[in-house]
Design a protein that fits this description.
Blueprint lengths: L1 H20 L3 H11 L4 H25 L5 H22 L8 H20 L14 H18 L3 H12 L4 H27 L6 H24 L2 H23 L5 H41 L1
């Protein structure tokens, strides 16, 4: 019972992050389950089955708060579900650890770019122009879906990071669209795991605990992302992208144990300072807008 309560709290915390920043439900949940000795396939299966419910509630909440770009969802969801299905069947038969360091390095690089993009604005308001092409979105959906199933979480880190770094869609729309389309991805991955492992390979108690926690947090997270300024949301997302991939990158070059923890603490402190800078910049930019409006009227 204690383990189920803990998993429920993990689901709540993970969905609060995922629904606000467009990533980390699978990464957070899978990391804890792997830490207590659950196999990668069983952990990923439980996470994805719980995500069928959490993403449905999260998508509905994001839609209610106007956070969804349905064109993005329409193009990415089905390729993502197909990629997740094949990724799930592969995970049941192969070791996916080999590719993890390379994916982590790529995501950290993109996370760093997202941070730079939103921090360099200064007192300016962020601008989002242009249109993302289907030729970019559909393959991205396949790759993100495969990474999601194999890594126990990757739809958000790959999808959200790539869309944010494009600079063509405001962060709340990125988060809402990625979270909404993840419903189809979760179904694809779940079907793949059921096909490869069978129902006996899945602990439905874990699934239910994660689901309950995630469903409670989903509407709160959707409301939060609706009210967070784009600048602050971008810096928050970029920081967590780097943080969630830091351990994998460091361990791939032989840095382990307490040094990884110290690096994570150091990055968290740096990230907190970046958030503080972004909050101050947002206040300055908001102060400039009324002054410009007054000048325009007086002219």
């Amino acid at each position: 019972m204690r383990n189920l309560i803990v998993l429920g709290l993990v689901g709540l915390f993970a969905q609060l992050i995922d629904g606000s920043l467009g990533m980390a439900y699978g990464v957070t949940s899978s990391t804890l389950m792997l830490a207590v000795g659950i196999s990668p396939a069983a952990a990923s299966a439980a996470v994805h089955l719980s995500e069928v419910g959490t993403t449905l509630v999260s998508g509905a909440a994001h839609w209610k708060f106007g956070n969804v770009d349905w064109r993005i969802v329409g193009i990415m969801a089905v390729p993502g579900g197909i990629g997740a299905f094949f990724g799930a069947t592969l995970l049941a038969n192969i070791n996916g650890d080999t590719a993890k360091p390379f994916v982590a390095i790529l995501l950290m690089s993109l996370g760093g770019y997202v941070l730079w993009r939103f921090l360099r604005l200064g007192g300016e308001r962020p601008q989002f122009k242009g249109k993302l092409k289907a030729a970019f979105l559909a393959p991205l959906g396949v790759v993100a879906g495969i990474c999601d199933a194999i890594g126990g979480g990757g739809w958000g880190p790959v999808g959200t990071t790539s869309l944010l770094s494009s600079g063509k869609l405001e962060p709340r729309k990125v988060v809402g669209s990625i979270d909404t389309s993840e419903f189809v991805v979760a179904i694809g991955a779940s079907l793949g795991f059921l096909f490869a492992l069978g129902s006996q390979g899945i602990n439905f108690g874990w699934v239910l605990a994660l689901l309950i926690g995630g469903v409670i947090a989903a509407p709160v997270a959707a409301w939060l992302v609706r009210h967070l300024p784009a600048r602050i949301l971008g810096v928050a997302a970029g920081g967590i992208i780097v943080l969630t991939n830091l351990k994998t990158v460091l361990e791939s070059v032989g840095i382990e144990g307490v040094y990884v923890a110290l690096a994570a603490i150091a990055w968290t402190l740096i990230w907190a300072q970046m958030l503080l800078v972004s909050v101050r910049a947002e206040r300055r930019s908001r102060a400039v807008v009324p002054e410009q409006a007054v000048d325009g009227v007086s002219a």
